[in-house]
Amino acid sequence: MDELVKKIAALGLPGILFVIATATSGGSVAAVVTMLSSLGGPLGLLGGLGLLGLVGILGEYIAGFGVENVLKLIYTERSKTESVRFLLKEIKELPITDDLKLKLEHHISPVVVTETDEAPAPRTIEIVDEESVT
Length: 134
Known about the structure:
Elements: H1 2-11, H2 13-24, H3 29-40, H4 44-65, H5 67-78, H6 84-93, H7 98-108
Helix pairs in contact: 1-2, 2-4, 3-4, 5-7, 6-7
């Protein structure tokens, strides 16, 4: 068992994902192959295995550079082409800590924008038709 654990640990995050998928499938090979095939999309099983490898590589870079820094760089790049309000709303919905959300919000918009769900009240304009008195 120790040897198996060492080999899975060497795979890193993809190994953990594979173990979780295997455990949740009840050890069924068909279920694991189906899961990997669905992850692979049009490339099937090989695409799923490639995706696990990509997740491992990304996991290493993110761990080395830091999640906060990677997210800041991503949102900085996205703020060049997307609305800051949209990005702020997206950040609020992310499954991350409130502290990290505040840091990201401050990073892309140093001035905090508070949005209200209410639309501004419509203005009433009165048009008066004046006749000239002579």
